[in-house]
């Protein structure tokens, strides 16, 4: 049986999110290794809270990208950990990490689209089971 249009759209959505997770991961690695020449963009010059956040997200974002690209069940879970971490950083502690409302909104939009896809896929499976 071939995947439905909805299932194909969901797979493409996950792969687009994987691409932006990979981009975020690379940006955190740029901070870790000090390629970008700006204040607090080198690991040894960062405050402790930035060191912890950067090291954690530099590992988790590429890991989430792999899981999302492979359409694995654990990919969205790792993405959620990354999104929750950044949301807490930028919305919960703007005095420490700065305010980045666009990142928080982007994570909320991705979560909403993901939840919508899951509900629609569930309804599609229920409809197919009753036929």
Report on the structure:
This protein is mostly helical and 131 residues long. It has helices spanning 5-33, 48-69, 74-92, 94-97, 101-130. Helices cover 79% and strands 0% of the residues. Helix 2 (48-69) packs antiparallel against helix 3 (74-92). The mean pLDDT is 93.
Biggest β-sheet: count, sense, barrel?
A: none
* Strand coverage percent: under 5%
Number of helices: 5
- The mean pLDDT is 93
Give the termini separation. Answer: 15 Å
Proportion of residues in helical segments:
over 70%
Helix/strand/pairing category? mainly alpha
Quick one: overall form?
elongated
β-strand number: 0
Taken in chain order, the helices and strands follow as HHHHH
Q: Mind telling me the C-alpha Rg?
A: 17 Å
> Which residues form runs of ≥5 with pLDDT under 50?
none
What topology does this entry show?
Elements: H1 5-33, H2 48-69, H3 74-92, H4 94-97, H5 101-130
Helix pairs in contact: 1-2, 1-5, 2-3, 3-5
